[in-house]
Specification:
By secondary structure, this protein is of the alpha/beta class. The chain has helices at residues 3-15, 56-69, 86-98, 114-123, 137-144, 148-165, 187-196, 213-216, 222-242, 253-258, 263-282, 300-303, 317-323, 332-336, 339-349, 362-376, and strands at 24-27, 73-76, 102-107, 127-130, 172-175, 201-202, 245-246, 304-307, 312-314, 325-326. It binds iron/sulfur cluster (2 copies). One iron/sulfur cluster (SF4) is lined by residues 297-298, 300, 315-316, 318-319, 357, 360, 364.
């Protein structure tokens, strides 16, 4: 069963009143980072003090709890760069696989040491997603920092070396380039580079630039957007030939082109779902709990939980800032079943979407659309 099917099955259970643990738990070990990428939303922000971060011992404890509670997937991400807390991240990966949960590590790819690469291959870690934006050092180093291209390529080669030496297929190394004015015409080159390095997945990300003059230059002009869609067409054909899995088929014009202004896109989705729900109510077509999940804007509060570096938790980062639930004071299960989470879920069902949802991210909007489509067929 694929991820979408598993998520749908969980939602259908919730509809029947059968509660589940979160399907995915996203951990943000730190907001510190060794880089200063042009596209980073943390640019100019101070990192948390080390003593405010969830401790390594707490992470180990809560990953163990996640395994016992029924969480199926751990995603270690940022925020900052997870490998800036090297030992903590390394420990989380071990506990994740001890409980047979699926593991994804999202990283800038520059801080690996060979011991961790070897460990990830040995324990059967599932996915390593690397933020490589350019197919050459000129593009990549301009966007993410001097020397990043060379270091990332060296680390990808080390993954291939250890996978071949230990006769393992995992982890799958994937590329997650952020599309911007410096690489919108290099999609095919990125696919060629991926192919040469045994990489079978490339997922293009929409740009969300921080509000500073320098980074705003990364937003594509109207002419560049026109050209971008022709490059997408060519890259789709190439991906097919090279048998590389991409999200090029699903790129949404609005989400890609609205860049830093996703509010309009989210509001449109939310309004559309509330309207459809109201229409059904007016026509007496809503069959109580059976239809609960068919027309809602967001499914995260039933399937996903995140933990920020300071322990704040919720279904996603913007909401975690407002719920005031902290993993340092509660267990995962206590938080997931808390009154605040229940109230939040009720709000989403009734179309009461909080203002902070304006800070949602493009990929989550797409993911929610996919889930909604799938739920509606059941
Ligand atoms: S690697 Fe990630 S967290 Fe670090 S500066 Fe770049 S975008 Fe920001
Ligand atoms: S911010 Fe996005 S993921 Fe979070 S609750 Fe709002 S719509 Fe859902």
């Amino acid at each position: 069963m694929n991820k979408l099917e598993k998520q749908t099955e969980i939602l259908l259970d919730w509809q029947k009143g059968i509660k589940h643990a979160p399907f995915s738990l996203h951990l943000f070990p730190t907001n510190k980072c060794n880089l200063k990428c042009m596209t980073c939303s943390l640019r100019g922000k101070e990192p948390y003090e080390a003593d405010k971060e969830v401790s390594k011992a707490q992470y180990v404890k809560l990953t163990n709890e996640a395994g016992k509670y029924g969480v199926q997937r751990i995603v270690i991400t940022g925020g900052g760069e997870p490998l800036a807390r090297y030992d903590t991240t390394k420990a989380i990966t071990k506990v994740t696989k001890k409980h047979n949960m699926e593991g994804t590590l999202i990283t800038n790819g520059t801080l690996f040491k060979e011991d961790l690469i070897k460990q990830l291959v040995e324990i059967g870690w599932d996915y390593v997603q690397i933020s490589l934006d350019g197919p050459d050092s000129k593009t990549q180093d301009f966007l993410r920092g001097k020397g990043t291209f060379r270091t990332i390529m060296k680390n990808i080669k080390l993954f291939n070396h250890w996978k071949s030496k230990l006769s393992k297929n995992l982890p799958e190394v994937e590329l997650i380039p952020v599309v911007n004015s410096k690489n919108f015409d290099k999609l095919s080159e990125l696919l060629i580079l991926a192919n040469k390095n045994n990489i079978r997945h490339v997922t293009f990300q929409s740009l969300r630039v921080p509000d500073n003059k320098e980074s705003r230059k990364l937003i594509l002009s109207k002419t560049q957007y026109k050209l971008f869609w022709t490059h997408v067409k060519k890259a789709k054909e190439l991906a097919f030939q090279l048998e590389i899995i991409t999200n090029l088929e699903n790129l949404d014009k609005k989400i890609m082109e609205e860049t830093s202004n996703l509010t309009a896109v989210i509001n449109h989705d939310i309004k559309e779902q509330s309207k459809q729900k109201q229409d059904k109510l007016n026509k007496g077509l809503n069959k109580g709990h059976v239809d609960t999940f068919k027309n809602i804007a967001c499914y995260q509060p039933w399937i996903e939980m995140i933990i920020k570096p300071d322990g704040l938790t919720g279904p996603c980062p913007p909401v975690a800032d407002n719920l005031h639930l902290n993993i340092k004071n509660n267990t995962l299960a206590e938080i997931w079943t808390s009154k605040q989470m229940e109230e939040f879920r009720k709000g989403i069902i009734t179309g009461n979407i909080p203002e902070c949802c304006e800070r949602c991210c493009g990929n989550l909007i797409l993911e929610n659309r996919e889930i909604r489509k799938n739920v509606q067929t059941k």
